[in-house]
C-alpha cells in the first residue's frame, strides 16, 4: 500500500532558503509615539518657560563656590561609605562569630543605628558637647590617659562624617553579612582543607565571591548617600544642597539653583553607576 | 612498614546523633584503602576527622606521626593553635564530591594558591609545579580557564591536581565521581588509579566496586558509625563474613 503524497501548500524551491518576515507590532509603535509626544512636551516645558532661567543655571553650574560644595559632598560620601563599610565589615564578621558576646553586640549596633533617623544622629553628634563637655581615653571608671574638649575634637565636619559613617555601618553590616552567607559552604571547607591561613581565606577566597552580592547593594547605598549627604545642611556645612540655598537666599533664583544642584547630583550618580557596572563585571569573572 | 594513618577509638556526635562509634583504622604508607557503606553510615564524617575538618569527641587521629589537632602532655590532650592545625593539613590532600574549586580564580591560580600562601613556597618553584600537575591530569591547555568553563570530569581532575600541589603524604577522596555524568566517571578514576600505582597513600570513599577491586589494597565496609569488616578486595567483596556487608553488596553490585 502506498500513502497518498501530501501536497505541500507552499511550493518550496530547494535552491532558495525561506525568508523570515518579522511580525509587525502596531500597538508597540503607538505606545512609543505617545511617549515621544510626552517627552517633547516635557522638553518644551523645560526650555520655553523663562522661569527656569537656563542662563542662570549655566552661570552657577561651575561657580567656584558650587564646585567647592560638590567636592565637600564627594568628601562626605567617600568618608561615609569608606568608614561605614570598614566598620560594617567588622560588624558583619562579629555577627557571624561563634562568640555570643561579639555577635550580640553587632546585632545591637545594627538594631540601634538603623532605628534612629539619620538626622537625629547627626544632631546628636553635633551637640555631643552638651552631654560630655570633655572626652577622655582611659580605664573605664578609672584614670584617664588623654583628655580633650569635645568642642575642639568634634567640629561640624567630624560630626557629619561620624554620623554618616556610623549610620552607614549598620546598613553595610547587613549587606556584607548577606554577601558572606551567600558564598557556598564548600568554599570555606576547601580553603580550610588546603591549609590556607584565616585572613587569606577571608580576603582571597570568601570576600571576592561575596562581592558579587555585596556590590549591587553597596552601589545602591553609595548612590543613596551621595544624595543623603544633603541632610547635613542642618549643620550649616557648605555641601551642595546647603550652598545652593545660600545662593538663592541671596539672589532669589530658587528654581535655577535647585536645578544646578539636581544636575550635579545627576552627574555624580551617573559616574557612580558607570563605575559600579565595571566593578560588578570584575567580581563576576569566571561566571556564566 | 610504617603507619600513615592511625585512628584509635574515634567517636563523633552531632548533637544527639552518634555518628562515629569508636572507629579503629590503620593505613600503611603506600596503601590504598577504599571505604564502602550505605549513605549516612558516617563515611564522610570519618574522612573529615582525618584532616581535622571535623574535631573528634573522643579517641585519637594520627597522620604521619602527627597527633591531629592536639599536643599530648602526659595523659592530656591540649588543643593546638590554628596555625599548627593548618600546617598539619598541608600534609593531607582532600578531594570533595562537589569539587569545590574557587570559581573566581583560574585553574592555575587554584593550583598555586595553597603552595604559595599555606606553604609559603616561592612562585618560581610553584609555577612549574602547577604546569607539571596539570599535564599529569591531562589538562595542560586549561591553565588559564575558569573552572565554570570546564566539564565536571575536568573540574574534578583540576581539584585532584590542586590537592597534589601541596605534595601531600596522604590523599583523601570523598565520593570523587558521584557528582559526575556517567560518561565522565572513567577519566577521573583513571587519574586516581594512576596515582595509586605511583605509590600515593590514599583513602577513597566510592560506590565504584570495579574500581575498588582493581586498585584497593584493602576495602572497609562501614555501617552505623563502625567499620564492620575490613579485608583485601577479593575477600571482602566476594566472600564477606558479615551479613550486613553481604546485604549491602547485593544492592550495589
Ligand atoms: N555537620 C553535621 N551536622 C549534623 N549532622 C551531620 C553533619 N554531618 C553529617 N551529619 C549526619 O551524620 C550522619 C553521617 O553522615 P555522613 O558522614 O555524611 O555519612 P555518609 O558519608 O556515609 O553518607 C548523617 O545522618 C548526617 O546527616
Ligand atoms: Mg558522604
Automatic annotation (TrEMBL), chain A:
Presence of keyword Ribonucleoprotein: no
Chief localisation class: membrane
Membrane-topology annotation of the record: Multi-pass membrane protein
Any single GO CC term annotated in Swiss-Prot or TrEMBL for this entry: ATP-binding cassette (ABC) transporter complex
Annotated GO biological process: amino acid transport
Gene3D superfamilies in UniProt: MetI-like
UniProt entry keywords in alphabetical sequence: Amino-acid transport, Cell membrane, Membrane, Transmembrane, Transmembrane helix, Transport
Keyword presence, Oxidoreductase: no
Segments passing through the bilayer: 29-52, 72-94, 106-126, 254-279
Domain ABC transmembrane type-1: 70-276
Compartment annotation: Cell membrane
Pfam family, one: BPD_transp_1
Domain of life, source organism: Bacteria
GO MF annotation list: transmembrane transporter activity
InterPro entries tied to this protein: AA_ABC_transptr_permease_3TM (IPR010065), ArtM/GltK/GlnP/TcyL/YhdX-like (IPR043429), MetI-like (IPR000515), MetI-like_sf (IPR035906)
Family: Belongs to the binding-protein-dependent transport system permease family.
NCBIfam families, per database record: HEQRo_perm_3TM (TIGR01726)
UniProt protein name: Polar amino acid transport system permease protein
UniProtKB/TrEMBL annotation, chain B:
Pfam families in alphabetical order: ABC_tran
Reaction(s) the record says it catalyses: a polar amino acid(out) + ATP + H2O = a polar amino acid(in) + ADP + phosphate + H(+)
Keywords, sorted A to Z: ATP-binding, Cell membrane, Membrane, Nucleotide-binding, Transport
Record CDD domains: ABC_HisP_GlnQ
Compartmental location: Cell membrane
A GO MF term: ATP hydrolysis activity
Its membrane topology: Peripheral membrane protein
Keyword Transport: yes
Protein name: ABC-type polar-amino-acid transporter
Annotated organism of origin: Nonomuraea jiangxiensis
